[in-house]
Design a protein that fits this description.
The protein is an alpha+beta fold and about 375 residues long. It has a single domain, classed as Catalase core domain (Catalase HpII,  Chain A, domain 1). The protein is built from eight helices and ten strands. Strands 1, 2, 3, 4, 5, 6, 7, 8, 9 and 10 form a ten-stranded antiparallel beta sheet that branches. It is globular, with a radius of gyration of 19 Å. About 50% of the residues are buried.
Amino acid sequence: MANQNAKTTNENGELLNETAPMEKHSAPLTAGNMFARLAGIGCLLLGVVGAFLYLGGWFSPQKLTPARFVDEFERVSGIHSGFRHNHAKGVSVRGFFDSNGQGTRLSKAVVFQNGRVPVIGRFSLGGGDPHVPDALSTVRGLGLQFSLPDGEQWRTAMINLPVFPFKDPQAFYDNLVASQLDPNTHQPDPAKGTAFLASHPETARALTIIKSHAPSSGFDNTAYYSLNAFRFVNADGASTYVRWTLTPVQPYETGTGASQNKDFLFDGLIASIQQHPLQWHLVMTVAQPGDPTDNATIPWPEGREQVDVGTLTLDSVESEETSPARDINFDPLVLPAGMAPSNDPLLSARSAVYSQSFTRRAGETKEPSEITPSEVRK
């Protein structure tokens, strides 16, 4: 197990400006179907970002703690020994990042200097069940670890939603309460959902944006977003706030939604990467004064400067059973010099509960992964 410090013993997060074409949907969202949409992604987001909730600053420790949130993940998805409590189903990849040097005017981080650094990554699906069937609507994650020549690391955890539905940990927690299933109907109570949306108009707006982006057909042609803002510092000491997007070189295709085998997204990724390397452009969107840096539900205005800082290439895939990625925590606060967190409260939240989840699973017996070594050798 890698040595862990205050920044690195944290769980996978396994998540601005989308440049891949997206199919638009013009159907208006009523309060009722917005809540249905919210409820539909609620369980996914519980796995994706439930661990974003931090305890200390927002809740009394007697009411809500990291351990209690991990307990809740286990209650919702069951106990799966050795697996992540969110984004449990995944497969590991390796490759490299070629920097073109354009990022150095934004950040002094070594990763943005001209050159190549090795990368270990992990594609995943939201949720705590490692055996869940693949679905186009399930939130997709990509965690990456960049290993820099000076011994530093940069870890990032992204998802395929262009905005985040909740502005802070309290809003996320309120949604969990509102989305609880009625024991009689086994459905969320519409009245509670309507009340939640009425008191959280930012969530309703975010869901409209999310709904307008049709999911792509696979992991390989998906764009992945940092969502949270980060503060970059260049060699002259100038600070710039950015969000980033990995935009796929592989052409965008809309998923058909047709019935397929339970691992069709992973099977497609494995087949694709074994045929040719997969590539994404790493694009920084630069904030202007007044752009929110503490609220991931709000997209920055179109027309903001975008800087393509290099190309990510992933050229091999392996089961988590044989990859070091299984024990890497893609904590977004593992940052090299020249990169720092913004004032977004979700960043510290993610670190806090990831740490609890990592500690718990590190002491468990590891069970076989859903995506086995024989599958990745197909």
